[in-house]
Design brief:
- The protein is α+β, with helices and mostly antiparallel strands.
- It is built from four helices and six strands.
- The chain has helices at 16-22, 33-41, 113-118, 141-150, and strands at 4-10, 24-26, 48-54, 60-73, 97-112, 136-139.
- The protein binds a DNA duplex through residues 8, 10, 31-34, 54-55, 59, 113, 130-133, 135.
Length: 152
DNA sequence: GCCAACGTTGGC
DNA sequence: GCCAACGTTGGC
């Protein structure tokens, strides 16, 4: 059963254009247990993700990617030169597990947070709920399909 | 840069 | 286990 997600990235850190160029990337640097648990326990190869830019103008959904590989070790936790290093994490039992995502498409136009807030059909999306800072969120199949249609 | 809304840490 | 202090996220 394919599942649908929304994943956030700061545009100036790793944008949809970076993913388009790299084709596949490990979704490293997530240091929130709830987000990790979703990646580790629920995200599976073939699942589809909306790609969301935070800290951008405007913020919003900018494209689509797919889970290319599941349950990957986030290597940045063992990299002493990385800002994401976690000295408490053990090689034999890594704390941080992520997925690899593959570029699928970039939208013609950003579907902005403002637009989502105003769309009566998208009021169940996590991303518009107050205080929701999770960088990995579940999206319903219906909302995912609706958003793809908005891009047409 | 501000600040609300979190999540994490650590003393007790 | 509680909770104050602190750190982070992310919209604006």
């Amino acid at each position: 059963m394919k599942k649908y997600w929304l994943i956030k990235s700061e545009e100036n850190v790793y944008s949809i254009d970076d993913l388009k160029k790299d084709k596949v990337t490990a979704w490293t640097g997530v240091r929130n247990y709830q987000a990790r648990n979703m990646m580790r326990d629920e995200m599976r190869k073939g699942d589809m993700c909306l790609y969301y830019h935070s800290n951008s103008k405007p913020t919003g959904i900018v494209g689509v990617c797919t889970v290319a590989e599941e349950r990957c070790i986030d290597e940045t936790q063992f990299d002493k030169n990385s800002e994401y290093v976690d000295i408490k994490s053990k090689i034999e039992n890594p704390t941080w597990i992520c997925v690899k995502v593959k570029f699928v498409s970039k939208f013609k136009k950003v579907i902005s947070l403002e637009q989502i807030k105003q769309d009566i059909n998208l009021q169940n999306m996590e991303v518009i709920k107050k205080g929701n800072r999770l960088s990995v969120q579940r999206v319903s199949e219906r909302d995912f399909g609706y958003i793809l249609n908005l891009n047409n």
